[in-house]
Amino acid sequence: MSNRWIQPGDNVDITNERKKCTFDIEKMSAFIHGGEDKLQRRREILEYVKSNKSLGDPQPIEFMTRNERVENASRKIVEMTNNTDQIDGSDFFGEGMYYQALTMGRDLHAMSLHYVMFIPTLQGQTDDEQLDHWLSLAIARAIVGTYAQTELGHGTNLSKLETTAHYDPKTEEFVLNSPTITAAKWWPGALGKSSNYAVVVAQLYTQGECKGPHPFIVQLREMDTHKPLKGITLGDIGPKLGINGSDNGFLLFDHVRIPRRHMLMRYSKVLPDGTYIKPQHSKLGYGTMVFVRSIMIKDQASQLGAASTIAIRYASVRRQGEIIPNSGEVQILDYQTQQYRLFPQLARAFAFLFAAYEIRDLYMKVTEQLTHGNTELLPEIHALSSGLKSVVSWDTAQGIEQCRLACGGHGYSQASAFPEIYGYAVGGCTYEGENIVMLQQVARFLMKAAEEVKKGSANLAEICAYIGRKGEQHSRFTSVDSYRDEDIVSDLEYVARQQVFRAYEKLRKAQQQANSETAWNSCSVELCKTSRWHVRLYLVKNFLAKVSTAPSDLRAVLHDVARLYAFDIITSSSGNFYENGYMREDQMNEIREGVYKCLHRIRPNAVSLVDSWDYDDRELKSVLGRRDGNVYPALLEWAKQSPLNKTEVLPTFDKYLGPMMREAKSKL
Amino acid sequence: MSNRWIQPGDNVDITNERKKCTFDIEKMSAFIHGGEDKLQRRREILEYVKSNKSLGDPQPIEFMTRNERVENASRKIVEMTNNTDQIDGSDFFGEGMYYQALTMGRDLHAMSLHYVMFIPTLQGQTDDEQLDHWLSLAIARAIVGTYAQTELGHGTNLSKLETTAHYDPKTEEFVLNSPTITAAKWWPGALGKSSNYAVVVAQLYTQGECKGPHPFIVQLREMDTHKPLKGITLGDIGPKLGINGSDNGFLLFDHVRIPRRHMLMRYSKVLPDGTYIKPQHSKLGYGTMVFVRSIMIKDQASQLGAASTIAIRYASVRRQGEIIPNSGEVQILDYQTQQYRLFPQLARAFAFLFAAYEIRDLYMKVTEQLTHGNTELLPEIHALSSGLKSVVSWDTAQGIEQCRLACGGHGYSQASAFPEIYGYAVGGCTYEGENIVMLQQVARFLMKAAEEVKKGSANLAEICAYIGRKGEQHSRFTSVDSYRDEDIVSDLEYVARQQVFRAYEKLRKAQQQANSETAWNSCSVELCKTSRWHVRLYLVKNFLAKVSTAPSDLRAVLHDVARLYAFDIITSSSGNFYENGYMREDQMNEIREGVYKCLHRIRPNAVSLVDSWDYDDRELKSVLGRRDGNVYPALLEWAKQSPLNKTEVLPTFDKYLGPMMREAKSKL
To answer: Which chain B residues are closer than 8 Å to A641 by Cβ?
Structure first.
């Protein structure tokens, strides 16, 4: 079988790995990326990005100072958005994300929030007249906007934001103010230095009453000079764990006046005399949130896939230690412990990617339903996407670190790209809804479902139908070979259901002794566990179902990966499966052996499985994960670019260490 | 009770927390740090460091470029070592580590390896004449040395190092050479720019035979100009996940000649004619390794303690969300989920610190025994310290990230210090023996013990006596309140013993089907689990024992912490306790409730518990973890120092974003 990943001059070990592949890689890549046409488009976008030198970095960004990184990112984002005709702008989930990943790497940039939050907010929250005015400016890039909601002292709980917008009917203006330091807007991407506009969320006061948080469009900087406007203090919030090419910022208002019509008035309005008009619909934007989540989940899957690719490729070229004495050092990928560290991460990446596709499709289904006024699926899918966001971002972060640690010392170097990948991905545990808060939202939904089941009034959609099912009393497992997909799902459903009702009963009991909120808090750890099982069940089910739709010659290898994913979950939480005698120890021991069997079966295809994710070196930006496996000379070349190596002797040698040694010597 | 941590002007919430404290903090601090005299010395060292402005940073290091950090670190290390008379040099475990932590923070520096590896190697490996010559130079700081062993392509497996030292009897010299790129020395701290000497480990060749890796002392740079000597290529290996103030380096030799007597000849020798004299003892340095491990474990405990301190203090001043509607936002420390994230980390920090003390004491006991030729305890303690190193470094890294994530968005900022703490601490999973390799070493020891037990010939020392005990068939647990320390230990012993014999049987079976090494590899995941249980058992046992020696008025609160540590381990691995019907579900459910009870009991003392670790703001270097709790104004002040804020408008605005917007505007 031809294999486009094998090229002359490659490391011999990695080539041998590729020759062992038992499936058609191109077909697998097409399956992973949603079809041959999508794969073809990836290749075209890659060619374009490679051909446009201005979309590249003059040197690896890890050698740049933060100011240089911010400048470099702003240069590239202008060039990138100058050339959006190269991609299908309507397909951000596919082409847009790939184009951006190739160009901007793992740093956000001056216009991240412009596209992801500023423009969508204008589209969703302005009335027609406002939309005409602002949207054209934003789309033409005549202004650069961000979205300023979070404050120094306030995150998740919007109702307590402190920034105020007092309406003054005399001048028909709002007065924006930050009454305290904790009211400072804090974190918005590109707020510090790049943006000259922002949608600002502030507590609206009119006619002496607070009407809660509302969005306003606010000019922050002068158009020509880019200097902050009077009454506005803003700046960069400093370096972070990751995304240091982005100027996340802070913003303080000192009685800044904006015209009345700068309040975004699609839903609520303030009339010239100060009369407040309430919004007609209260819960909006659920749909968009689900779409943003599907993108996040895909992005996380992609980061974990990249980490797996780097670590598995490196483990195939790194030789260390001998399994059999005097028979030569082995590829570290041959160690069972190494496989146990790495392959489950790859399996997770698949599980998460397939879930992202599914959420995107569900989003489209719900959007379609909503146009007919049908909101049936909305709560279920909103809960699922919140839960997925939490579980996926956490497992991704953990998985990336496992991949990094599996590369030993070299994983610690920024040459590996792991520090950058981790810093970027782990942010997903916090932004777009802190994970623990998200899990509790999911739990509220599940507790409602449990209540309905108890009352016999449940009408549960497919995703949580298991809560209402009776299910088996004992696992149907007899042997790993005869362990069918539906048995696996049934076993996970048992545990998920048990946990739902365990939490439900605990909560009910607690509610008899305390008010409902205190009771909830006293059960919150168990409630979070409940949500996690709900999500894990979904991930396994969806993964197995997806595999069954794969071209028949891909199914065997994908099935190994999916089963590894499921078996790993089951054996890592064996206690849950033992409860009420549902599973026996001999069954669990067999499944544990099943994990090792899966590792063994995946081993020969491991490199090709990651190849089929179709990462170009341009996207990985990792010396350890190079396609050609020629890691060591590349590490040396990379290191030589370190700014410390600009001179043979650091200019500061003569200030400290030199005099110290000379003085000591003179005294001896 | 007076509380030195309460001061005027502090945040009200944190002061109220401190007022709730039920124990004597000073007494607790003394207990944690090994006595009142030790605590007193800490305070004196702190005063000195604060009083010497040259030991401080001109600005927070997170705003410096890497070159600036390296320069700053080299300035401070010279000043620090100019003033070693301020501490008791014989007490590195106590005073030395504290002095260094206060001065150098979480960056290593130009002389880290000079003191930790270069000088000890000289002391251990030179003959008397060599020692006279080199040790005085090193101690006087007339030379700066490092220890160069690891190579680009070779880490753990020393026998395959590629650097060669060929003896030439004609000139009585060794010729050092790096025959390949993978032979490049890679990673040694301070090798890139700072050191002018190194102990280099190379394969010794004489009279046509390879005698394996041996240490040589090699001059790398000219004394005066600090330029690399002829035939020597060296430099910095580039930025890393952490410790970026250190110039970890690479080194290549092109047939560099050194005198015969630059081979360190305490054990092996090469005579002028090339005759090789074998070492008399083969296994040496075990003792030193144990000492280094005790320091590492203490350092890890200290990092996790710092992370817990930051997160718990911040959780006491951060208010977000309402548990009871309209009753005001609560301290996030009141959420059960937050307590469940944070308190187990604090409990681990205690467990690890107490283990470090114990290992240090055992080291001294063993050293004492060794002087009488008694090596009885050595293998046991070596195995234990290897296992502790693995479990502690992994749990510490995980724990730090939990603390960081529990601080939400602000945890992601470098102002929190978490990115720095994590980057520094997680390195411990890899250096001084990669964790998975370490765990397998421990497992070899445990399998030998199991074999002896099976044969009835076991003579096990206390640490692994449990392997030979019969133990209970069922847990003695009846209720959380009556769950005695010895019952807890007995339950953990059951699981640890089960796992030892499970792995042993699996290994024996595998050995019947394959050669011993392949069999080992096929069981290695289970073997690592075995080692982890061995260590966890030790940690719990040691923690409970240590608490029982605490002053009586401290015992109650410490006991809550120790039990939380144990209950968390038990409930996180419930499956292991269910096996063979050892524990019942109702017992496990009670222990799970016991976790929540411990959280509840620890809650009022949480801030004071971390206060009693006695971290000064100078050591924490965290805006979120400030003693005074005045986090928000400090965050704003910190951010203002960001290099991006030096000008209101970035100079690059007129290069990219400015022209883009102007052009767009002109076209509208």
So the answer is: 238
- Beta strand spans in B178-242 (E): 185-186, 197-206, 209-219, 232-236
Catalytic residue, chosen from A432, A451, A505, A526, is A432
Q: Which residue has the tokens 């992994």?
A: B394
Q: Do B444 and B530 form a contact (C-beta atoms < 8 A)?
A: no
B74–A652 C-beta distance less than 8 A: yes
Residues of CATH 1.20.140.10 domain(s) within chain A?
287-433
d(CA A119, CA A113): 8
Quote the CA–CA distance of B86 and B95 in Å, as a whole number: 9
Structure tokens at B465: 């006596």
- Alpha carbon of residue B146 to chain centroid: 20
Q: Where in chain B is the domain with CATH 1.20.140.10?
A: 285-643
| The pLDDT value given to residue B284 | 53
> Maximum Cα–Cα distance for chain A, whole Å?
91
Residue type present at position A373: G
Radius of gyration, alpha carbons of chain B: 27
**Where in chain B do CATH 1.10.540.10 domains reside?**
27-107
B222: number of CA atoms within 13 Å, CB side?
10
**Looking at the partner chain, which of A227, A319, A335 has a beta carbon nearest the beta carbon of B524?**
A335
Tell me how close the Cα of A79 comes to any Cα of chain B, in angstroms.
Answer: 9
Question: Which amino acid makes up residue B519?
Answer: A
In which residue ranges of chain B is CATH 2.40.110.10 found? 115-277
By C-alpha distance, which of B379, B492, B383, B467 is closest to B433? B383
Per-residue model confidence as pLDDT tens digits over A151-207: 999 987 889 999 999 999 999 999 999 999 999 999 999 999 999 999 999 999 999
List the beta strands (DSSP E) in B100-255: 145-148, 164-168, 173-177, 185-186, 197-206, 209-219, 232-236, 249-253
Distance CA B655, CA B652 (A): 5
User: Does A189 belong to an annotated binding site?
Assistant: yes
| Minimal C-alpha gap between A377 and chain B (Å) | 28
Distance CA(B619)–CA(B481), nearest Å, equals 39
Residue A506's φ and ψ, nearest 5 degrees, are -60, -40
Distance CA B547, CA B52 (A): 38
pLDDT tens for each residue of B265-287 = 999 999 999 999 998 765 556 67
CA B320 to chain centre: 34
Whether A118 contacts A137, CB under 8 Å: no
Please, which pLDDT band fits residue B598 given cuts at 50, 70 and 90? very high
What pLDDT was estimated at residue B6? 98
Interface predicted TM-score (ipTM) of this complex, two decimals:
0.97
Residue A395 near residue A348, CB atoms below 8 Å: yes
Sequence ranges of chain A with CATH classification 2.40.110.10 = 144-277
Assigned superfamily of A144-277:
Butyryl-CoA Dehydrogenase, subunit A, domain 2 (2.40.110.10)
Cβ contacts of A101-105, under 8 Å, gap ≥ 24: A101/A302, A101/A619, A102/A45, A102/A46, A102/A49, A102/A55, A102/A616, A102/A618, A102/A619, A103/A49, A103/A55, A103/A76, A103/A77, A103/A79, A104/A73, A104/A76, A104/A77, A104/A80, A104/A245, A105/A57, A105/A61, A105/A420, A105/A621
The neighbouring-strand residues paired with A250 are A186, A235
Q: What ranges in A262-377 are assigned the alpha helix state H?
A: 286-317, 336-371
Q: Which CATH class is domain A287-433?
A: mainly alpha
Asked if residue B471 belongs to a known ligand binding site, the reply is no
Q: Say if domain B27-107 classifies as CATH 1.10.8.60.
A: no
Residues 6+ apart with CB under 8 A from B157: A320, A321, A322, A329
Domain B285-643: give its CATH code: 1.20.140.10
**A432 carries an active-site annotation:** yes
- The CATH class, in words, for B115-277 is mainly beta
Strands A197-206 and A164-168: parallel
